[in-house]
From TrEMBL:
Keywords tagged on the record: ATP-binding, Carbohydrate metabolism, Kinase, Multifunctional enzyme, Nucleotide-binding, Nucleotidyltransferase, Transferase
Assembly mode: Homodimer.
Kinase in keyword set: yes
EC number, as in UniProt: 2.7.1.167, 2.7.7.70
Family to which the UniProt record says this protein belongs: In the C-terminal section; belongs to the cytidylyltransferase family.
Organism of provenance: Hydrogenimonas cancrithermarum
Domain of life: Bacteria
Signal peptide: none
Residue ranges of the region described as Cytidylyltransferase: 348-477
Residue ranges of domain Carbohydrate kinase PfkB in the record: 10-305
Protein name: Bifunctional protein HldE
Residues annotated for ATP binding in this entry: 198-201
Length: 477
């Protein structure tokens, strides 16, 4: 798989571009005006959505991307075009229609839960004039394009005429066309290389209720034959995906944790397109796309998967989630780089955590609240003996690391052998460095590296030392 990270295929994305707008906050009360939650908005963000999320996924994989679409002559359209250009995407075929609204979907997220979504958009087909402009641009790009991806969100860009003209032009020049379809009538996709509906969409398009392997096969081959496709694919959520060409076969997948399925179909389309454009076959493309989708559904909001994340996911596929969170120093450095690229606020703390107790858990939960990802450095057995004496630790280093990694508040754990975590903190360069309240007025190791130091008070009466003392007292009795 690593070989694909070194190539840069040229990919054209045609479809409905939109802005995904997020309001992030917390809620702890109900409005006195109506039985609805009051959201304390703490952050606002805006990213490319729809076909734009396909673009995001392709950029994350390293593709050379062009887009063809229609937006409005409005502020949302201007921001969308600017975002594309900032990614290095070619926008020669981005047409602004005066009467059109650029699609913007606003989502309110409270405590990792979507509360409401409100949309502003136009759903009418693009004008004939816009069709001609897009077709002329696509025609010019065909001979330098490795593959075309049609991302249909039903907002009017992929009109029947435009879709068919693009497919026919691509067929004539030997360029593959992959389609993420929309609606119940797939006639406009006839002649494409591949369509990728999910099970519900395939059932609606074929009129076949997919309830078992037999009905799945009927639906898949109906799509392939009736639409004159080279192959068809039906995505099956947690069950993976089914491929239909000369035969039918399924590619299973396993997603460890599902936070949000937003954009998973975009990730599948983008990854399939990248691998096929780079010379891979459909089975390999499907396997990699499955892994990419599994990475994405483990994140909140429209997300992407990089090659490092996909490779890491496949490498650790047979490990438990807890094992996956225990990192070597080298692996931690890669995870930290990924978190920072995603704009995550990183929190770091460290300790012996010899006998895990309530005080530890509350301390770590408080530490996590200061950011998006909590990394915990754990003293090795040798380090604990130097600090605490030959009778410690009670629990060996891997046991301590595993218990910490099993906590919801902890994202990654790494073991360090030095007396202080300074070298580890240099690797992490955290936004927030957390230590216990007993460090008030003292110098905190790593405070010259972290952007901020926060002190957290311990829970009275809860400590490893007191637990050991109680055990010894009970033995004497």
């Amino acid at each position: 798989m690593r070989k694909y990270a070194a190539v840069r295929p040229s990919i054209l994305v045609v479809g409905d571009l939109m802005l995904d707008h997020y309001l992030w906050g917390k809620t702890d009360r109900i409005s006195p005006e109506a039985p609805v939650p009051v959201i304390d908005v703490q952050e606002e963000s805006e990213v490319l959505g729809g076909a734009g999320n396909v673009v995001n996924n392709l950029i994350a994989l390293g593709a050379d991307v062009s887009v063809a679409s229609a937006i409005g002559k409005d502020e949302n359209g201007k921001r969308l075009a600017k975002m594309l250009k900032s990614l290095g995407v070619r926008t020669d075929a981005l047409v602004a229609e005066p009467e059109r609204k650029t699609t913007r979907k606003s989502r309110v997220i409270a405590s990792h839960q979507q509360v409401i979504r409100f949309d502003s958009e136009t759903r009418q087909d693009i004008t004939k004039e816009t069709e001609e402009k897009i077709l002329a641009s696509v025609q010019r790009q065909l001979f330098v394009t490795d593959i075309i991806l049609l991302s249909d969100y039903g907002k009017g860009v992929l009109s029947e005429r435009l879709t068919q003209q693009i497919i026919q032009m691509a067929r004539a020049t030997g360029v593959k066309v992959l389609v993420d379809p929309k609606g119940k009538d797939y006639a406009k996709y006839s002649g494409a290389t591949l369509v990728t509906p999910n099970k519900k969409e395939a059932s609606e398009a074929t009129g076949i209720d997919i309830v078992d392997t037999e009905s799945l096969g009927k639906a898949g081959f109906w799509l392939k034959n009736e639409l004159n496709l080279d192959m068809a694919m039906i995505t099956l959520s947690e069950e993976g995906m089914a491929i239909f060409d000369e035969t039918m076969r399924t590619i299973p997948t396993v997603a460890r944790e599902v936070y949000d399925v937003t954009g998973a179909g975009d990730t599948v389309l983008g990854t399939l397109g990248f691998v096929l454009a780079a010379g891979g076959d459909i089975d390999e493309a499907a396997r990699i796309a499955n892994a990419a989708a599994a990475v994405v559904v483990g994140k909140l909001g429209s997300a992407t998967a990089s090659w490092d994340e996909i490779i890491e996911y496949e490498t650790t596929l047979h490990e438990s989630t807890t094992e996956h969170r225990i990192k070597s120093r080298e692996a931690l450095a890669q995870s930290v780089e990924r978190l920072k690229n995603e704009g995550k606020r990183i929190v770091f703390t460290n300790g012996c955590f010899d006998i895990l107790h309530l005080g530890h858990v509350k301390y770590l939960e408080k530490a996590k609240s200061f950011g998006d990802a909590l990394i915990v450095g754990v003293n090795s057995d040798a380090s604990v003996r130097r600090l605490k004496g030959e009778s410690r630790p009670v629990n060996p280093e891997y046991d301590r690391a595993y218990l910490l990694a099993a906590l919801d508040a902890v994202d990654f754990v790494t073991i360090f052998d030095e007396d202080t975590p300074y070298d580890l903190i240099k690797i992490v360069e955290p936004d927030v460095l957390v230590k216990g309240g007993d460090y008030e007025g003292k110098e905190v190791v790593g405070s010259d590296i972290a952007k901020e130091v926060r002190l957290v008070d311990f829970v009275d009466g809860k400590s490893t030392t007191k637990i050991i003392e109680k055990i010894n007292d009970d033995k004497r009795e």
